[in-house]
Design goal:
The chain is mainly α and 268 residues long. Helix content is 42%, strand content 7%. It is built from ten helices and seven strands.
């Protein structure tokens, strides 16, 4: 009898995921504009809704997550990452950069039951789960680290049934943003976001970083003799209350791609 009651209680506590992530889409529709977040409004009147969504994600048990299709699993993790980033920043706001928070990507702030018994850091969620498990380079255009040079935050949740379309839209939007990436055909210079440097191995699955980018900027970017330069990363907060200008270029350049010494979200 006791065993039966205990099993019933555990089953009742095992929340089934909302594959439409309606609460997150409502939140994004209210507080995201042009890919930026109105953190002042979130802190003033949106924290309760954000906490409710994050708590709902945290309540999903491993058994329920394991039964999801791969696209639904990826959408779940992308939404979880982005929601926890917004939650972290809103809790510390007003700040000028997420890096004003002590070790924002290394502190264990993601207590998802699907991840195991102990809370996980944003770095671990990204690198140990999302990147390693799915092997999808376009996740780098969906994970939003609360900086101006991060990808824009969508006004809708990622959904398993739309994940291919959404990731492709994010890729075209990010790569096509001339404040982050541009190609001077006359000078034969390809200027890219530092994201392509930090995670070059993920993009080299297409053959090379320029080959990956060529799908969105044209075949000329992968032609012999093109010099690749990586832009400095603008860590200014992706705050809707602030403006935005293009970041400066790094002075170094090379004919190939040199690996970066560390992950951008792990940098101090």
């Amino acid at each position: 009898m006791v065993t039966t009651m205990l099993s019933f209680a555990i089953a009742a506590a095992c929340t089934q995921p909302d594959l439409d992530h309606r609460a997150w889409t409502r939140f994004l529709g209210r507080y995201v504009e042009g890919g930026l977040v109105d953190y002042a409004a979130v802190k003033g009147r949106g924290l309760a809704d954000l906490e409710a969504y994050v708590s709902a994600l945290d309540a999903i048990c491993p058994e329920a997550y394991a039964k999801l299709a791969p696209g639904d699993q990826l959408a779940f993790l992308l939404n979880a990452y982005n929601a926890h980033v917004v939650r972290l920043v809103a809790g510390a706001y007003p700040i000028a950069s997420i890096r004003d928070v002590t070790e924002p990507f290394k502190r264990p702030i993601v207590p998802l039951r699907v991840l195991g018994a102990s809370p996980m850091s944003l770095d671990a969620l990204e690198n140990e789960l999302i990147r390693k498990r799915f092997g999808e380079p376009r996740v780098h255009f969906a994970l939003v680290c609360a900086a101006m040079d991060c990808p824009p935050l969508r006004k809708e949740a990622y959904l398993g049934r739309k994940i291919e379309q959404q990731l492709e839209e994010q890729a075209r939007l990010f790569v096509g943003d001339r404040r982050k990436n541009r190609f001077d055909a006359d000078a034969k210079v390809l200027e890219l976001s530092a994201i392509f440097d930090w995670f070059h191995g993920d993009f080299e699955k297409a053959g090379s970083v320029p080959t990956f980018v060529a799908k969105y900027l044209g075949d000329g970017v992968a032609a012999p003799g093109v010099v690749v330069r990586f832009r400095d990363y603008d860590w200014t907060l992706n705050d809707a209350k602030r403006g935005r200008g293009p970041g400066p270029l790094e002075t170094s350049s090379s004919d190939g791609i040199e690996p970066a010494p560390s992950n951008r979200r792990g940098k101090p």
